[in-house]
Write a structure and sequence with these properties.
Elements: E1 2-3, H1 8-22, E2 27-32, H2 35-46, E3 54-56, H3 65-68, E4 87-95, H4 99-110, E5 116-124, E6 136-140, E7 147-153, E8 159-165
Parallel strand pairs: 2-3, 2-4, 4-5, 5-6
Antiparallel strand pairs: 1-8, 7-8
Amino acid sequence: MSTLSLDAEALYDELRGGVRRLLHADTALVGIWSGGAWLAERLQADLKRAGPCGVISSALHRDDYSARGLAGGGDVTRLPFAIDGAHILLIDDVLFTGRTIRAVINELYDFGRPRAVDLAVLVDRGGRELPIQASFAAAKVVLPAAKRLTLARGADGRFVFSLEHQD
């Protein structure tokens, strides 16, 4: 595992500014488990938004569920507000193929029908397999498909990226 020369904290500052521009009075932040949930939680506090943010898991709607099962988050979806008619801003750490976002949207619609759904990500690494695009990405990078970009959160709450070889 090697450390990537992307400054996750600087990108977080960019993400905060981008999210601020996407917010409406009735916008609910929903972080995708796990890195997106960390980001949404911190954004909720830093942007001084009232109430809790939501957390959503892609596990039950993944197209590779038979191979992965509940790996990577299990059933951690917590949406402490009404979804019907809401403006939802999904937050994720890394956007790659778009399959996680597709699964998350399916999970979201199990809870209701939002008025609108936007997506903000820390890093868009390209390589899309589905027609999904973020409304805001703090950075765009190109990585080989065999590399995995992972966000970690230290004990002090600060973010850092690692780059791993995927089998």
